[in-house]
Amino acid sequence: MLCTSGHNNSDAASFCSVCGVNTFHPATAGTNPGTTRLPVGAAWNAFAIASLVCSVTWLYWFGSILGIVFGFIARKQIRERGEQGAGLALAGIIVGAVALALAAVVFLFFVGLASNCSNGC
Fold it and tell me: Do 62 and 106 belong together in one domain?
């Protein structure tokens, strides 16, 4: 049996002889019985990283849009492949959406301001 840290133990062990945590069956290794755990050294999803980077850099709305698109692609790939980076992908989607919404509000503000000034500012 493996503990949540991946140490090998005898099948009858309740606690890891190396680190002292509960031991679980390899298919359900995690902090709670019944949860799955990524294999040690699981790869990070590149789209998840790109999602957050694009969302943060913004690039005149283009980065926000790419961040949202890459985030959804990453989340799908992470579910299919068992990679790491679900949190990064979600953060990229959220940051991209917030940046896009703020940009839309600023754009609408200036359009409204310009339409009011056309009447004689």
Answer: yes
Q: At what angle do helices 86-117 and 62-81 cross, to 10 degrees?
A: 160
In whole angstroms, give the CA distance from residue 24 to residue 34: 9
Q: To 5 degrees, how large is the angle CA 92–CA 72–CA 89? A: 35
Question: How many domains does the chain contain in total?
Answer: 2
What do you get for the CA distance between the two ends of the chain, in Å? 76
3-state secondary structure of 96: helix
Q: What is the pTM of this model?
A: 0.63
pLDDT tens-digit readout, 38-89: 556 679 999 999 999 999 997 778 999 999 999 999 999 999 999 999 999 9
